[in-house]
Amino acid sequence: MESLIVISKVKKYIKEKGDFNTSAGFFEPLNQDIIKACRDAMNHAQKLGRKTVMGKDFNLYIENPEIGEALVVASKVKKMIKEEGGLSTSAQAIDQLTIRIQKICDQAIANATSDKRKTVMDRDFSAPTVMG
User: Would you say the pTM of this structure is higher than 0.85?
Assistant: First the structure.
């Protein structure tokens, strides 16, 4: 599956948040997490009988998030959801995925800091289970 994340923008986010570099290996687990989050949201929307994946279909939800720029490729997310689930995608879904990526990056920066490194690596990835 192609990448749903905007790698250059994720790198920029990590650089601006803590002046960290990002190894290439970090992006595959991040992309797989976003794919899984989309599939879980599709299943949720379908169980409720809706034809649109909304922000509230994601297991981690922030009400009215304020994001700078999307960290996912909206057209690719919408295409995947349409092809796999036959569903439409609300703009809220893109915002929720961006928030998810930000939380994952923030935790990865903390993990790299704890290991006294200035590069975020694949081993720093952890999928969020709660928003805080």
Answer: yes
Q: Are 120 and 61 a contacting pair, CB within 8 Å? A: no
Domain assignment present for residue 132? The answer is no
CA distance 37 to 97: 8
Write out the residue range of the structural domain in which residue 87 sits: 7-124
Contact in structure between 73 and 36 (CB atoms under 8 Å):
no
1 is a domain residue: no
10: nearest Cα among 71, 95, 76, 75: 71
Burial class (CB in 10 A: 0-12, 13-18, 19+), 63: exposed
Q: Which residue do the tokens 């922000």 mark?
A: 55
Per-residue pLDDT tens over the stretch 24-67: 999 999 999 999 999 999 999 999 999 999 999 998 777 777 78
Phi and psi angles of residue 66, each rounded to the nearest 5 degrees, phi first: -110, 105
